[in-house]
Write a structure and sequence with these properties.
This protein is mainly beta and 161 residues long. It is built from 2 helices and 9 strands. The longest helix is centred in the first third of the chain and has 7 residues. The structure holds zinc ion (ZN).
Length: 161
Amino acid sequence: MKVEKNKVAYFHYTLTAVDGDFSETSAKSEPVAFLVGHGNIMPALEAALSGAEAGDEVEVTLEPRDAYGERRPNAIQRVPIKHLMSSKNKLAPGNVVKINTAEGVRDATVVKVGRFNVDVDTNHPLAGKTLKFQLRITEVRDASAEEIAHGHAHGAGGHHH
Ligand code: ZN
């Protein structure tokens, strides 16, 4: 069975930034599940997986515009420490914290810590990075009518209600 619209595909991934300062893998957890054709993962990643089958390995390199976007230069914000959603012991430059913004909760990187305020970079930590994904499809199955109606995969690796 191939990865195509209205199938549920499961995959393991290793993600590395080509500049070498980030890497992440799903190897120690369950595979990621997604409903194909419903915008659940990055379009460029979905395009790369399209037509693959269980057991296939796919490698794809995404430019920033196809991944987390370019870095915005004026994205440093001064935020009162009490407005941060993270515990105080994470407040060191380079650490990622969660902040409330008009667009909802998002990750930001601590740039500078003051007594009452902290300067954070609200670019996504992977913004501006070219990312290499090494993917291995572990399973492809038909989606249920309920999954298609909801627009996401259910069960292990997917959405839990
Ligand atoms: Zn659902």
